Amino acid sequence: MNFTADTWWLFGIIITGAIAIIGFFLKRTINQTDRHDKEIKEIQLSYVTKTELKDVKTDTNKAIAKLQTDVDQIKDTCLTKKDYYASINEVKEEIKNQNKLILELIKGGCNNDN
Length: 114
What we know:
The chain is an all-alpha fold. The chain has three domains: about 15-45; about 50-80; about 85-114. It has helices spanning about 5-45, 50-75, 80-114. The protein is rod-shaped. The protein starts with a helix and ends with a helix.
């Protein structure tokens, strides 16, 4: 196959185009590989093993159980709002009764002086 001077430039353009296409795909592949490497490093930094997850679950369950016992203890030792209001009403009634008795004694005492 004979190439004349006029066909060498065509051969040069084809070779240049092929190198450009190969370079483009090679660059894209390298960029994807770099991006994947970064993603893999992020995953390695943030992943949790099964044993670590079990430990965290166990600790969480223990904490929840402790909180539940604390809540039960609070329920046992503290007054409810209803009980508080009932006891306040009882105290108010006692005060009213004592005031009535004091007024009766005062009135009765005044009647005794006359």
